[in-house]
Amino acid sequence: MPIEINGQTYYRTLEVCHKAGISRGTLLRWLKEGIIEEPHRDRKDWRLFTSNDLYIIGVEVTKIRAGKSLAKMR
User: Fold this and answer.
1) What is the rounded CA–CA span in Å between residue 37 and residue 2?
2) How far apart, in whole angstroms, are the C-alpha atoms of residue 42 and residue 23?
3) Residue 40, pLDDT score
4) Is the confidence at residue 70, as pLDDT, over 60?
5) Residue 32 vs residue 73, higher pLDDT
6) In angstroms, rounded to a whole number, what is the distance separating the alpha carbons of residues 56 and 41?
7) Three-class SS string for the chain?
8) What contacts 24+ positions apart, CB below 8 Å, involve 41-48?
């Protein structure tokens, strides 16, 4: 369930993975490799992703899926 802080909606790691259709391992690997930027963290040190972060992750997912589709066509 998204949380709201100071009028901004944030999503936790598993929510982002579910919405983007990727595994937690994939998301963490992308963070480690710098494919996506490290998001804000809450006082428990949990990652909090914005809607914009979710959009960027979705773009990466689309790029990867498009690449796989092109490979199948060859």
Assistant:
1) 20
2) 22
3) 92
4) no
5) 32
6) 18
7) CCEEECCEEEECHHHHHHHHCCCHHHHHHHHHHCCCCCCEECCCCCEEECHHHHHHHHHHHHHHHHHHHHHHHC
8) 46/12, 46/13, 47/12, 47/13, 48/3, 48/5, 48/10, 48/11, 48/12
Residue 55, token pair as written in the block: 């959009």
Q: Which amino acid is at 46?
A: W
The 10s digit of each residue's pLDDT in 12-51 is 999 999 999 999 999 999 999 999 999 999 999 999 999 9
pLDDT band with cut points at 50, 70 and 90 for residue 74: low
Query: CATH number of the domain at 3-73, out of 1.10.1040.10, 2.60.40.10, 1.10.1660.10, 3.40.50.150?
Result: 1.10.1660.10
Give the separation between CA 23 and CA 27, rounded to whole angstroms: 6
